[in-house]
Specification:
One of its GO terms (molecular function) is metal ion binding. The protein is α/β, with parallel strands linked by helices. It is 42% helix and 9% strand. Bound molecules: NADPH dihydro-nicotinamide-adenine-dinucleotide phosphate (NDP), pyruvic acid (PYR) and magnesium ion.
Length: 576
């Protein structure tokens, strides 16, 4: 295949005519013979509601099942956006959107693609956090696979119950660290569902290829254990061998059922399992930890872009993190790796420019013995420092990054200390949802007297300070994983390599223009995300080919065009 033959994406047949490449070809909506179109209307993948044409109503036994009017998809979209905007409560918007996804999948994605900046905070952070907290109460229809301890020994059978065979991406959680909201057990399902809807809307991965999974090993959340509407196992978390065995059975069953090339994205596991799972399965499976690797890639992209504003190179910066878990140490490691690529210095040298604070204070060498393994590389020589503000004064960072999961930690004193040290302090408050952000956009701009370059994990509105409007950027792995996953799929990559993460960062940073910098942005707007994702996918795929990790051969000539042609288009198809 060359760059001009776009009929089959990533080696998996486009069964439902989901790719942009198949947009003009009529498809057969329903393969079983039916006497009534009623079931067609109840199938969210094929339902068009009032947009079924006269011809389709005749051909598919829909006459009388619909009122006479025929609407365009655009008019349906207009109506739904109007209706959504009537809801004042974000959770109501979330529920309305989930209902739409269950009713008419293409219309759901059309809304999401065309209104991404408005709807991202609904299907994703912050609202998805509240949805997970209340998942039991708002539960209507299951949207993914639930694999609990009850299914031990039968996981392969459970996977076979899923109706799709051509799965390309699985997002899996065990619900133990849902955003910065802690252990939400089985109710963490909202996260894989939300992440995969972004795989489709932002990255163009077909909905039929996406599988959300929650592994339920219990919860230690007392409130949920006592909640009569809780949907999960009512027991405390399994740990140790019992946990490892269930996870191992799951990983083996996935490979057996879907083959080598299904991408397994670990999401919102607690760090005591996350690092181990990634290390254990990265040489045998196509695995990616979004919280460690995706977050690292998006933050590095923001830093590379911000150098235009800060001046100097990455190696000229000094970094201080609040939070030394998955996100914090994952980002730190990728920064150190990129510095090595740029300077040729050993990674150990570069790590010395990066400092982390955890719940016990600055990570220093005298604490080394008692530190978790992922913190040890960051234990530099220094006297102990307990408070963040004192660490800022002692370390003198140019960049301050919040990955603590705890809100309000970047106090006025902390931001003022950063502003006293730097002409343009770079401050990232990455913790989600909004309630857990280390500071707000307003606080960062006000306390730094309009000098901070600010980005946050959850979105904040633009803020006017001293006559100037500042637009805060959203440093969220949602910029990375959809395009990254698409790149993996279109190249048929068999493993994830750190250089593919660096390629994704570079691709994202390249999308930031002068116009964005003028507004104070170090990320391009999400409204351009499909184009951004195609560029990320192309760079990631190119790196996979270069590293010999790609199995989709020969390499398409124009990877950006190829990525675009493989992307899901939510436009209705014409039914023959
Ligand atoms: N914007 C984005 O794209 C992403 C954002 N995140 C967000 O980052 C946050 C952290 O996630 P993750 O790294 O996975 O979580 P972890 O639990 O792995 O790490 C949290 C870290 O924060 C430290 N910490 C907790 N409380 C405090 C405190 N009061 N002061 C100082 N340090 C503290 C913990 O310390 P100790 O080790 O001592 O317990 C730990 O080192 C979450 O809110 C998550 O939503 C995560 C991924 C992506
Ligand atoms: C964004 C994300 O992955 C998190 O907050 O966990
Ligand atoms: Mg996450």
């Amino acid at each position: 295949m060359d760059g001009g033959d776009y009929s089959v994406a990533g080696g998996v047949e486009d069964v439902y005519g989901e790719d942009a490449a198949s947009i003009d070809q009529p498809v057969t909506p329903w393969t079983v013979s039916v006497a009534s179109g009623y079931s067609l209307m109840r199938d969210p993948r094929h339902n068009k509601g009032l947009a079924f044409t006269e011809k389709e109503r005749d051909a598919h036994y829909l006459r009388g099942l619909l009122p006479p009017v025929v609407l365009t998809q655009e008019l349906q979209e207009k109506k739904l956006m109007h209706n959504l905007r009537q809801y004042q409560v974000p959770l109501q918007r979330y529920m309305a959107l989930m209902d739409l996804q269950e009713r008419n999948e293409r219309l759901f994605y059309k809304l999401l693609v065309d209104n991404v900046e408005e709807l991202l905070p609904v299907v994703y952070t912050p609202t998805v956090g509240e949805a997970c907290q209340k998942y039991g109460s708002i539960f209507r229809r299951p949207q993914g696979l639930y694999i609990s301890l009850k299914e031990k020994g039968k996981i392969l059978e459970v996977l076979k119950n899923w109706p799709e065979r051509s799965v390309q991406v699985i997002v899996v959680t065990d619900g133990e660290r849902i955003l910065g909201l802690g252990d939400l057990g089985c109710q963490g399902m909202g996260i894989p569902v939300g992440k995969l809807s972004l795989y489709t809307a932002l990255g163009g991965v077909r909905p039929s290829a996406c599988l959300p999974i929650t592994i339920d090993v219990g919860t230690n959340n007392e409130k949920l254990l006592n909640d009569e509407f809780y949907i999960g196992l009512r027991q405390r978390r399994a740990t140790g061998q019992e946990y490892a065995e269930l996870l191992h059975e799951f990983m083996s069953a996935v490979k057996q059922n879907y083959g080598e090339k299904v991408l397994i994205q670990f999401e919102d596991f607690a760090n005591h399992n996350a690092f181990e799972l990634l290390a254990r399965y990265s040489s045998s499976h196509l695995v990616f930890n979004d919280d460690i690797q995706g977050t690292a890639s998006v933050v590095l992209a923001g830093l590379l872009a911000a150098l235009r504003l800060l001046g100097g190179t990455l190696a000229d910066q000094r970094f201080l993190f609040l939070g030394a878990g998955e996100a914090g140490t994952g980002i730190a490691e990728l920064i150190a790796l990129e510095m090595s690529k740029q300077t040729g210095n050993p990674i150990e040298e570069n790590r010395k420019k990066i400092w982390l604070v955890d719940s016990r204070g600055l990570i220093v060498d005298s604490r080394k013995e008692s530190l978790q393994h992922f913190k040890k590389p960051w234990a530099h020589e220094h006297e102990p420092v307990k408070e963040l503000v004192d660490a800022v004064k002692a370390i003198k960072p140019t960049v301050l990054i919040g990955t603590s999961g705890v809100g309000k930690q970047f106090t006025k004193e902390v931001v003022e200390a950063m502003a006293a040290l730097n002409e343009k302090p770079l401050i990232m408050a990455l913790s989600n949802p909004t309630s857990q952000a280390e500071c707000t956009a307003e606080e960062a701009y006000t306390w730094s007297e309009g000098r901070a370059i600010f980005a946050s994990g959850s979105p904040f509105d633009p803020f006017e300070y001293d006559g100037k409007v500042f637009v805060p950027g959203q440093a969220n792995n949602a910029y990375i994983f959809p395009g990254f996953g698409l790149g993996v799929i279109i190249s048929g990559a068999i493993r994830v390599h750190d250089d593919m993460l660096l390629a994704a960062s570079e691709a994202l940073a390249l999308q930031v223009t002068e116009e964005h910098y003028e507004k104070g942005l170090i990320y391009p707007p999400f409204s351009d995300i499909r184009k951004i994702s195609a560029n990320i996918a192309a760079k990631v795929a190119a790196k996979a080919y270069e590293l010999g990790l790609a199995s989709h051969l020969p390499q398409p000539k124009d990877l950006v065009k190829y990525a675009e042609s493989c992307m899901y288009s939510p436009k209705y198809r014409t039914y023959r």
